[in-house]
Structure formats: C-alpha cells, structure tokens
Amino acid sequence: MLLQPTEGLKNVIDMHWTIDGVCSVQVPMDDPNNELVWDYVLNGVSLSNYRG
C-alpha cells in the first residue's frame, strides 16, 4: 500500500492502480498519520500468502 500525502485534500482518494496486490491512495497532507485515515484505508484489507 502506498500513501501519497497531497495538499488540499479533505478525504482519501483511491488512485485505482492496476498492479495486483498494490494499492495507492492520496491522503490529506496535513495529517497523513491520523488513525482515522489509516482505519479508512485499511478497512477490508486482509493478508494472505497469495503471490500472483
């Protein structure tokens, strides 16, 4: 997962990468380590041993 802190954002934006197993999102620059941001980004994420 790649988080890209971006100026002027109020919400998380999915960048819709097409690489299997990689997620990229833009997050508000003012507080990219905010627990609420991480809770939102990681919601529904699980680990597996899949290697495509």
Structure write-up:
The chain has one helix at residues 35-42; strands at 2-6, 13-14, 24-28. The protein is globular. The chain has one helix and three strands, in the order βββα. With 52 residues, it is of the alpha+beta class. The mean pLDDT is 87.
In short:
This protein is an alpha+beta fold. The chain has one helix at residues 35-42, and strands at residues 2-6, 13-14, 24-28. Strands 1-3-2 form a three-stranded mixed sheet, with no helix packed on it.
The coarse overall form would be: globular
DSSP helix count?
A: 1
Mean pLDDT: 87
**SS strand fraction:** 15-25%
What is the gyration radius calculated from CA atoms? 12 Å
Tell me roughly what share of residues is in helical segments: 10-25%
SSE pattern, N- to C-terminal: EEEH
Total beta strands: 3
The helix/strand class is alpha+beta
Distance between the termini: 16 Å
User: Which residue ranges are poorly predicted, with pLDDT under 50 across at least 5 consecutive positions?
Assistant: none
Strand order of the largest sheet: 1-3-2
For the biggest sheet, the summary is:
3 strands, mixed
Topology, element by element:
Elements: E1 2-6, E2 13-14, E3 24-28, H1 35-42
